[in-house]
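pasting for ref
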Amino acid sequence: MAAATVVSNKRVILKRYVQTGIPSEDDMEAPMLAVPAGSTAVVVKNLYLSCDPIMLCVSG
């Protein structure tokens, strides 16, 4: 079996709930993703990301 290729995953995940203020880089992570050789996976790229300003009020 061939080795898996590791690609950069641009997905950003919150590691913990942010109690107050604006989330910092320490509150987030961008994990690496292993794609098995011979995989029929599809790469999807987002061109735009919208973060609603109301979420700052709701989360803080």
